[in-house]
Design brief:
Nitroreductase domain-containing protein; oxidoreductase activity, acting on other nitrogenous compounds as donors, with NAD or NADP as acceptor; alpha+beta; Nitroreductase-like; 4 strands; NADH Oxidase; NAD; Nitroreductase
């Protein structure tokens, strides 16, 4: 899982992220208390993976200037940097969500149950995990399902919008 996340794609290979794997029961207990309706998902999981995005634009610029080719750095400077701080940070978040999608697909392929969670208190996650220069965006609870798990599609089918409402073929 760690290598899958490390190799996740991002625009210009920007990688404005940090992934924190939490299996420690005491830490999971603290996180569960700031996870709203996801308390049981945090406690019942084997591991929580916290997805964070870099929060300091100048640190990000230093990172890409040290690690990326000139063309990628120039793309950032020409197309992303002129935008507002909020827009730049939203762009960072989009990159993190790409990695979340990759993780969910990999978990499905590996037979590992994964539940993405935005219903958490990001600022409190940051404090509990001691994150500096990064901000929590989302978390994913992973593990293997219990036989009596009511979320199994065979017990409780997924509820999704009608195919014709979400798929268009041209």
């Amino acid at each position: 899982m760690k290598e899958i996340l490390r190799l996740s794609p991002s625009s210009i290979n920007s990688q404005p992220w940090k992934f924190t794997f939490v299996s420690d029961e005491a830490t999971k207990q603290k996180l569960s208390e700031v996870s709203w309706l996801n308390t049981s998902k945090v406690l019942d999981s084997d591991t929580i993976i916290v997805f964070s995005q870099i929060d300091d634009i100048s640190s990000f610029e230093q990172q890409i200037e040290a690690e990326l080719p000139e063309g990628a750095v120039n793309y950032f400077k020409e197309f992303i940097k002129p935008q507002s701080e909020a827009a730049i940070k939203a762009w960072f978040g989009k990159q993190v969500y790409l990695s979340l999608g990759v993780l969910l697909s990999a978990c499905a392929e590996m037979g590992i149950d994964a539940t993405p969670m935005e219903g958490i208190e990001p600022d409190n996650y940051d404090k509990i995990l001691g994150l500096e220069n990064y901000k929590t965006l989302a978390a994913v609870a992973i593990g293997y399902r219990a036989e009596d798990d009511k979320n199994q599609p065979s017990i409780n089918p997924k509820s999704r919008r009608d195919f014709e409402k979400v798929i268009k073929t041209v």
